[in-house]
Specification:
With 72 residues, this protein is an alpha+beta fold. The protein has one helix spanning 5-17, and strands at 20-25, 28-40, 43-50, 55-60, 66-70.
């Protein structure tokens, strides 16, 4: 998936507003509450809270296959 400026803006808005984000990575789908955008080994990443376990999980952006903002 290509990360355009528009997609990054959507992701930044989700973080700012605490929105839910659906992420697809290697055939698995995750729905998380966007918490922050950070860097991991010089790669952009999204930290999202898993609602069922209340744990934060980090997703490297260039490893994602798809994403969508829920409830925007």
């Amino acid at each position: 998936m290509r990360w355009t400026a528009e997609r990054m803006n959507q992701l930044e808005r989700a973080v700012r507003d605490g929105l839910r984000v659906a992420l697809s990575r290697r055939g698995s789908e995750f729905i998380v509450v966007a918490r922050r955008i950070t860097s991991v080994a010089q790669r952009d990443a999204l930290v999202g809270r898993l609602p069922m376990t209340n744990e934060d999980q980090t997703f490297i952006l260039d490893e994602l296959d798809a994403f969508s903002i829920l409830g925007a």
